[in-house]
Write a structure and sequence with these properties.
Length: 237
């Protein structure tokens, strides 16, 4: 049966209904609206039922393709401020190699490309990786890796100057923190949707040799108690 119904509207005004199902049975649909309909199976795999399989959003003068099921923050008007906060925190010179962990459809990588020498995006959700390939196709300095961050980091051979972390609400796996400390990534910019898990992870990172600098709150959910934060941590050994 139906567990959740979500409506999202692309920047062009095109509506999409996303049905999250408790089982893998497609519902019988009767729709009299010019809307796309997609279903998410119990394993979060998207299935296109009517219309388009993805929405398109404009952020900072760039267009992003976002497939049903791929994560993309809904408050589009505030996203340029979030991107600017991340870029300001990184303070890039153009010579750096930067990790974009939990990179999703490539929101941050799209603005890091051209500002860094190399960007490596790591994302575990296959439809989001496909979106990122489309969104970042014009850039030669962006590498995409599909896989769980905790599995990918130990195998990376490049030395990175900074990392953007944008994990889900549950925060960072301990293995990710251990890997970042072992790699001695000089600067981490942590984008958090939950201050509680940010505090927990920041404490663990400090124990591994990082120093917490400033934390910038950004309200991406008006009229609700949720708050996003951009935190900067520098490695001191």
């Amino acid at each position: 049966g139906l567990r959740r119904l979500r409506l999202q509207i692309g920047s062009d005004g095109s509506p999409m209904l996303i049905l999250s199902m408790a089982d893998d049975q497609a519902p019988e649909l009767h729709i009299d609206l010019p809307a796309s309909v997609n279903m998410l199976l119990s394993d979060n795999e998207p299935v296109n039922l009517i219309g388009d399989s993805h929405s398109r959003f404009q952020v900072g003068g760039r267009e992003f393709r976002v497939t049903a099921g791929s994560f993309f923050r809904p408050h589009i008007a505030q996203l340029p401020r979030l991107v600017d906060a991340v870029l300001d925190a990184l303070d890039l010179t153009g010579q750096e190699a930067v990790l974009d962990l939990y990179g999703g459809v490539g929101l941050f990588s799209a603005f890091l490309a051209g500002r860094a020498e190399l960007v490596t995006l790591v994302e575990s959700y296959p439809p989001a990786v496909t979106d990122a390939e489309s969104n970042l196709d014009e850039f030669d300095d962006v590498d995409l890796i599909e896989g769980a961050v905790e599995d990918v980091l130990p195998d990376l051979e490049e030395r990175y100057d900074a990392a953007v972390l944008d994990p889900p609400g549950e925060g960072l796996d301990v293995a990710v923190i251990d890997s970042l400390a072992a790699m001695q990534v000089p600067r981490l910019v942590y984008v958090s949707s939950d201050p509680a898990t940010l505090a927990r992870d920041a404490k663990r990172l400090v124990q591994q040799g990082y120093r917490l600098g400033h934390v910038q709150p950004i309200d991406l959910a008006p009229q609700r108690y949720y708050i996003d934060c951009v935190a900067v941590l520098d490695y001191e050994g």
